[in-house]
Write a structure and sequence with these properties.
This protein has about 500 residues and is mostly helical. The protein contains 22 helices and 10 strands.
Length: about 500
């Protein structure tokens, strides 16, 4: 098995996905799917004057802008247009309502459910299958409550995630209006995606958010425009003082930045005994990116290590690269040796590398915190079908041009052909598969000295008699010292 996504190096592959999913290729401005119920926002918002928060009731306090429950709709339509044909799907989906005897809006154990269909039981209908319109890729974290309540940001002094007595709110009394992202929803008979919602679009706003901010009282007002009174207000003056046009630059394994310590300092997790970042919520199977900005953020409370007495990552390391808890000798790490190390790999480590061609995930795989790991749904990095149990003979037969085509769009491409073939030859040697000898022999004629050297070692491990025969023919002609040493000091242990 190939350790495809080991260490920080795998993050280089995300550059491609950030480019793709953050580009117009992935945007769908104007997307307007048919919904199971013909619901007109134009009628409900513009004609009836319903506030967005009547239906999307959690939008001010939650990450998600919730789709209203069936009962929210039924509460109105029990009195208005209750016989409309357009409500058929809604009625079929609705739960049998309960009798709210005490009028508190909640069901209590002594309050019976009304048996609508008369079968003597409370039934639950099929949920309405709404079509999602605004879809963000997994790497894009958007929190509705933060954007709508910039003026009510909690100073969580004790770090418990709640507002406690004595703790204050820090802010400006402003937020981003719904219309900035969703467009003129009050003019839409059928909801459509109004903005691209890609990373570039988000960053453009964050570079200069002031023009898009408004008083919290006007968040849902589709017609609001900044007035002279607003521009002269104390709140607006404070905005200009506190929020300057920002500078933003994004890095995903594309700059010499220490992502793991930065992530730890940001309160995203802690560096485990294997030195990788570990999160309570997501384990250690993480992709880390960095956004550098001049925007001020209140520091989160740093999370202390929760590794306890566990030493599984230390014990499992094939090369004993984790020399002690929280200390890694990169020179011994298989991820470093197979990905970053550009020259010959010393013989002591070749056998221990085993069949790994790109990285090593052993220390991550055994971490108990990975029971909380979650699989990505949008970014397809977790599994590449053609690399599932690859055929070493096929890899050995690849030319440099074949390599480029085969691995285009994957992190392996950044290895380059020579290092890739070095790693494949080591895996071939450790496989003990005699069917690979013919392909290994071909690599003895390679123009690259690194490939020739590893081919010699692989031949020694696979077929010592053939090694001795080739040695007689080739040793005297070899000019490179490292290659000659492989002929002279053959060993495979």
């Amino acid at each position: 098995m190939i350790g495809l996504f080991a260490g920080a190096s795998v993050l280089g592959g995300l550059v491609f996905f950030f480019w793709y999913y953050g580009s117009p290729r992935y945007t769908d401005v104007g997307y307007k799917p048919d919904q199971p119920i013909k619901y007109s926002h134009k009628f409900h918002v513009q004609s009836l004057g319903l506030d967005c928060r009547y239906c999307h009731s959690f939008v001010e306090v939650s990450h998600e802008a919730n789709v209203p429950s069936t009962n929210t709709c039924i509460n109105c339509h029990e009195h208005i247009e209750k016989d409309s044909y357009n409500l058929t799907v809604l009625k079929n989906s609705a739960q049998d309502p309960y009798e709210d005897l005490d009028g508190d809006g909640f069901w209590s154990e002594d309050e019976p459910f009304r048996d609508v269909n008369g079968n003597g039981e409370w039934d639950k209908g099929e949920p309405i299958n709404w079509v999602k319109i605004h879809m963000l890729p997994d790497y894009a974290y958007f929190n509705h409550s933060v954007h709508l309540n910039i003026g009510h940001k909690l100073i969580d002094e004790n770090g418990n995630g709640k507002w406690d007595e004595g703790e204050e709110y820090d802010g400006l009394g402003v937020g981003v209006g719904c219309v900035e992202c969703h467009g003129r929803i009050d003019q839409m008979e059928v909801v459509a995606q109004a903005e691209p919602l890609n990373m570039l679009w988000c960053l453009e706003c964050h570079r200069n958010p002031v023009p898009r901010l408004r008083p919290i009282s006007e968040i849902t007002n589709m017609d609001w425009e900044p007035t002279d009174t607003w521009k002269e207000s104390d709140t607006f003056v404070q905005i200009h003082k506190k929020i300057e046009p920002s500078q933003v630059k994004v890095f995903v394994d594309t700059a010499p930045l220490m992502e793991k310590p930065l992530a730890s300092a940001a309160g995203l997790g802690w560096q485990g005994k294997h030195t990788n970042l570990v999160s309570r919520n997501y384990g250690s199977w993480l992709f880390l990116g960095v956004i550098l900005t001049n925007i001020y953020f209140r520091n989160k409370k740093k999370i202390k290590s929760n590794c306890g007495t566990c030493s599984k990552c230390i014990d499992v390391c094939p090369t004993k690269a984790i020399i002690k808890p929280y200390t890694l000798d990169a020179r011994r790490c298989i991820s470093y040796l197979t990905i970053e190390h550009k020259t010959h790999i010393q013989k002591d480590f070749r056998i221990k590398i085993g069949n790994r061609i790109f990285g090593c995930d052993d220390c991550l795989a055994v971490c108990p915190w990975n029971k909380f790991a979650k699989k990505y749904s949008d970014i397809k990095l977790s599994y590449i079908k053609k690399l599932d149990m690859p055929n070493l003979k096929v890899f050995l037969s690849l030319s440099e041009n074949d390599f480029i085509i085969y691995f285009i769009g994957t992190p392996i491409r950044r290895l380059g052909y020579n290092r890739f073939m070095r790693n494949v030859l080591i895996a071939a040697a450790n496989s003990k598969d005699l069917n690979l000898v013919d392909e290994v022999l071909k690599k003895l004629d390679s123009s690259n000295e690194l490939i020739r050297a590893m081919a010699i070692w692989a031949l020694f491990c696979l077929d010592k008699p053939r090694f001795l025969l080739e040695k007689k023919k080739r040793l005297d002609k070899e000019k490179f010292y490292n290659v000659r040493q492989e002929w002279l000091n053959g060993e495979c242990n």
